[in-house]
Queue: 2 jobs
Job 1
Amino acid sequence: MPVRTLVPCDVQTLILLLPQLAAVDVELVVVEDGVVVVTAATRDGPAACTGCGQPSQWVHSAYVRHVADEAVGGRPLRIDLQVRRLYCQNPACPKTTFAEQVSGLTRRYQRRTAALQRVVDAVAVTLAGSAGARLLLILHQALSWATMLNCLMRIPEPRPAIPRVLGLDEFALLKGHRYATIMIDAQSGQRIDVLPDRRMDTVTAWLRQHPQVRVVCRDGAAGYAQAVTDADPTILQCADRWHLWHLLAEAVRKEVAAHAACWAGLGPPIREGRRASTTRERWKQVHELLDHGAGLLECSRRLNLGLNTVKRYARHDEPDKMVTAPQYRPTLVDPYREHLRARRAQDPAAPLAALLREIKEQGYTGSANLLARYICQGRVEADHATLSAKSVARLLLTNPDHLRKDQCDLHDKLADACSEMTALAELVAAFANLLTPEASNTVKLSDWINRVRAADLPFLNSFTTGLQRDRAAVEAAFTMPYHNGRTEGVNGLIKLLKRQTYGRASFPLLRHRILLSSSNPQ
Ligand SMILES: [Zn+2]
Ligand SMILES: [Zn+2]
């Protein structure tokens, strides 16, 4: 026998809390096995036919519908509503009988109120199958993942206006194997459509069906360029500025690596840390003793240093020669240096075992020996940022306004390393200026390409060959305000959506979620 609690309350208070019940007669409110059950019935009077809209009062029969609603006070709410089936009196109407619907409470074939359905739909769009089902369980709605997906696929697809400026980009359905095409409004970022592949004929067909598109922003992929030309040669094509910058960056990295020998020694000077002062102090002590006629062995004994160490100090006639930044290779300890540095600043005698334990908890996979050597070499305290081709290239590619003073100095030194590095630094800065679109950039671009041709920079040269091949679109990129940056954001969202369904979602499901998640929930 279920536990039933009769809840005495007046109808006015109830309608205040549950306004969706205003249009029906509430008969009883009980709590049954932890579920709030409202028993209600529709009122007498005419109801509009769901087929033709003509009102009718001719009752055929009555039956009870169980409608789930949003939980109240942490308890699921069910409305047991008696509704009528009525005859339609309109002879022209295809319906003989129809079931009455209560606005805000019931919909045909739905066992959830409109309010609850809105929640379920929003969860389905955001989390899809099983994650969505888990969240809804917390909200007192037990739905299977399959039901969630059904709800999701039933949500009508948004129909955005076709924009004049379209952004076109590909994204991986299965990296390296299957790709799809995303189309967005390049100005508002609104998602327009998702095509199941990146084939030329698919894109061409879509563009032919949507002649409103007059400008297409795309990356350098030759496929899209041809597809747009095939669809309509009068569509203006615009390469993506940031994609061009990305290609330039790649060429710069290769040039920098090719000149590694020219900049290798330009690393930042060693910090004036403890290690440097110890070195200077020891050098002074060793040379004082030697000047007073002590032998190497005697120095070693008095200063409590190894004989080889004393010999090393004795060999150098200036302490500063010994204080140079050693060129270390990257090790597994590097990522934890900041932690070690902070710990040793706090407690210079922190035991090795404790430090090892701490960084192991953070994911260090190296050995105790490696850590010990790292600490002995003074690499925790000293900041020997050994230069890599990547970091040098990054420095050259960074807007000088965003560089710290020391980075600026290093940038200048790198630009002076050799004539090719000088040319490279200048060309990068000149290219960066092209990224602000203006009409004069067409001339500046030609000038830039000529300067690259004149310099001895093979990788940059082949970059300009690519620019020439797509010249019209590249010029558009540097003279028009359009860009494809917003597809980047969409790509991030797509990755998230794919992971939520463990990459197993079918294309129609993924497409539906991509298009739906662009419109904000009401
Ligand atoms: Zn009708
Ligand atoms: Zn060089």
Job 2
Amino acid sequence: MFQVTVLALVVAMSWPSACADDDWAAYKTKYNKAYTGDEDNRRRAIWQDTMTQVREHNALYAQGKTSFFMAENALSDVSLDEISDAQDNYVELEDNVETPVSEKLVSQAKNIPESVDWREENIVTEVKNQGPFGSCWAFAVVAAVESLHLKSTGEKVLLSESNLVDCATSEGCNATSRLKAFQYIIDNKGIATQASYPYIPQKGPCNFSSSMVGAQIKSYVQLPSGDETALKEAVATIGPVTVGFDANHSSYKSYGGDVYDEPDCSRSRLTHAVLVVGYGSQNGKDYWILKNSYGSWGLNDTGYMLMARNKENMCGIATRAIYPTLCGGIEEQEGLTPGALNLGCPETQIGAVGSVRGCGEIEKIGLVYICIIMFNLWCEGNMI
Ligand SMILES: *[C@@H]1O[C@H](CO)[C@@H](O)[C@H](O)[C@H]1NC(C)=O
Ligand SMILES: *[C@@H]1O[C@H](CO)[C@@H](O)[C@H](O)[C@H]1NC(C)=O
Ligand SMILES: *[C@@H]1O[C@H](CO)[C@@H](O)[C@H](O)[C@H]1NC(C)=O
Ligand SMILES: *[C@@H]1O[C@H](CO)[C@@H](O)[C@H](O)[C@H]1NC(C)=O
């Protein structure tokens, strides 16, 4: 009897750490991580702390004391400081860039649907992964332009974050804002395709050439700061909108699902940028649907996140909301983008509504003439 008790005791005592060994090995396998020596111990300690927090938080969630749950993910063995450092301590500074505020959007707030999810309309491109680099702003801007281009033309063209990282500013990534990226795309008369200018998670020399262009924008519009009603209307009538928010919290790192709500969040210190692709409500909780750039992460590992909506601008989600407009795009036809910065469209309108699809991509002058002749013939044919 004594031996059995001792054995049971030994088993009971060794169980947790043997179990944790297995879990740690399984974690590393699942997320494709390999560490040696001290690094393995350090990573394991961070992972254990994270998992303790996840368990404690999820116990509160089960009691209905918090509105979101946490989960293990690829960031579970990475500390918040490391994420912050790897992302160049990205903070959107309150710079003084003049941007138009869309008055009309606010005043038009009627017949706006109670929920919108642009993923269901197939105008949201796949979730990408920025890796350990402060390029979230480039991913947010690219995701917005990809979506608007798709919505406007029906063509899915993946675009280049590295084009923005390398070329949109010389100040380094931390001081760059989405505004500068949008302005670059306007000034540059377009942004490269992903295929012609692939992503690497570091800043390199600018290697853009005009033959790489996959999409153009006409302007960008910034919504009234902190106005969640304006954001809702813009998302419903225009399409996905880029936003910044305060992501510098361990609750965010381990976000696993349901509606995120962090009482310690700042409404002015925006440390991350993403794309709002919709909004809605579930179980009495209003939310924004955010497309992140961490690959598989967050809401059921889909790469998305639900952020509390109508909770006094939670985490600054509506503090700085910006969307691009396309040349001849649908939003322009509906007269919904007053105060656009750059009213002149670039001469070549690649894929834009109203342009001759395909012609804009042909560079040789002779072929352009053929294109114009063909277009005229086509027009005349149609008029008969
Ligand atoms: C994140 O918060 C920590 C304190 O918790 C702070 O030291 C760090 O500077 C913050 N990082 C950013 C990018 O704001
Ligand atoms: C950006 O980060 C670099 C270090 O990576 C730092 O020297 C510089 O001061 C930062 N700039 C801003 C505006 O935060
Ligand atoms: C720059 O782009 C060209 C294609 O236009 C490519 O052949 C070349 O390797 C690129 N250079 C660098 C440094 O990436
Ligand atoms: C996420 O997973 C939970 C269960 O783990 C499920 O109840 C929920 O419907 C899923 N949500 C989505 C958006 O798939």
